[in-house]
Amino acid sequence: LKVTISEIDIPCSFGPAYEGERVRGKDLFCQMGGGKTLCTEFLEIADMNAIEDGKVTVVGPDITDIKEGDVLPLGIFMQAAGREFQEDFEPILERQTHHLINYIQGVMHAGQRDIAWVRVSKAAVEKGFTLKDLGVVLHAKLHQDFKAIVDKIQVTLYTKQEDVDKLTAKARAAYVHRDSRVDKMTDEDVETFYSCTLCQSFAPSHVCTVSPERTGLCGAYNWMDCKASYQINPTGPNQPIEKGEVLNAKLGEFKGVNEFVAKASRGAVTKYNFYSMVQDPMTTCGCCEAIAAMLPACNGVMTVNREYTGETPCGMKFTTLAGVMGGGASSPGFVGHSKFNITQRKFILGDGGILRMVWMPKALKEEIRGRFEKRAEEMGHPGLLDKIADETVGLTEEEILPFLQEKGHPALDMEPLVG
Ligand code: SF4
Ligand code: ZN
Questions:
Q1: Ligand 1 close to Cβ of residue 269 (< 6 A)
Q2: Cα dihedral 337→338→342→347 (10° resolution)
Q3: Residue 219 CA: which ligand 1 atom is closest?
Q4: Which helix (H) or strand (E) covers residue 258, if one does?
Q5: Would 9 be classed as within a structural domain?
Q6: Distance of alpha carbon 222 from alpha carbon 51, whole angstroms
Q7: Domain containing 159 — which CATH number?
Q8: From the CB of 220, is ligand 1 less than 6 Å away?
Q9: Fewest Cβ atoms nearer than 10 Å: which of 4, 64, 101, 205?
Q10: 245-271 confidence digits (pLDDT tens)
Q11: Among 218, 224, 265, 338, which residue has the most ligand 1 atoms within 8 Å of its CB, making it the best to mutate?
């Protein structure tokens, strides 16, 4: 028996009309995540008998227990069951939280996975909004939009630190498992890439192309996920793209990708290079996990992840970069990408790949150390990570250049970044 939900029982208005709405500082009641606290979203397959459809539980304080200006950690744990439901579908349903939470009037969602960010306005709280309503929305819409594969959805919202930590540890293990599913594949192995246009409501000309060696810039969708999403919903946001003729193998220009992007951006972007950030890079939307920028004086590039809130050698903080680049344009010299993508083999390979990387926040370096070192070794530069500057070395190109020289960073001997 399939449950059909036509109305969503929450005190706020709900619908795509509210998706682009922001919750600004003066309107803010409380927030979760966004670097202030940990906010993790995780959807996991469950046994049909292990969960109860429509059950929504808040474990820990809710909005009614806190005061204006407070922050809370948040774990959004969704469990899905269905005869047709597979583990492969987890990331697709999980990623729906982005637009579904944004559909609630007065509530804003950004980020994904363990770097999500939820902001709740005073207006929503005045109408009676509570965190439980997040679960009500997710249950109702996941049911409605994925009725072919979902029979039951149960949602648990954790707001106590220890519970959020526990959920996050479990989620991170799943993220690693998901990412590793494309690890052995190469772009040359496949004839078909996939598009993702889920973010066009925020960035109208943005089209992510997702290949085995380039996950979506939000980090939440890889090639396998897009393929599964297309199977579930053949007319949805993830469409197959036949690569077609290779126009430039080094920069990653494919005839089929260009044609698809031109159509999907309604002519706003007519081409992009898949393996370059210098020349006609892919478009960027606001949910990228990191943004790479050129550092011409160092003949290299830097990248900064969302969690790092300080200044960077390109002269802009992450939030400023995301504001400038995140509208869906292709901005030569800059590109949004996922954290995992840094260690995928095709990462800005047309510009020299990770051998160009001269600055990254320290925490990001540590987060990707294992995979980065492996990749650096493959490229003939073991120990590269420790030649890369971070905020403890400097925050301007002038400050980091002597460090790069002293360490013998390979970027200094490469051909000029801008020809
Ligand atoms: Fe899809 Fe790209 Fe948006 Fe991620 S960032 S949801 S892959 S369009
Ligand atoms: Zn986006």
A1: no
A2: -40
A3: 4
A4: helix 255-264
A5: no
A6: 28
A7: 3.30.1650.10
A8: yes
A9: 4
A10: 999 999 999 999 999 999 999 999 999
A11: 218
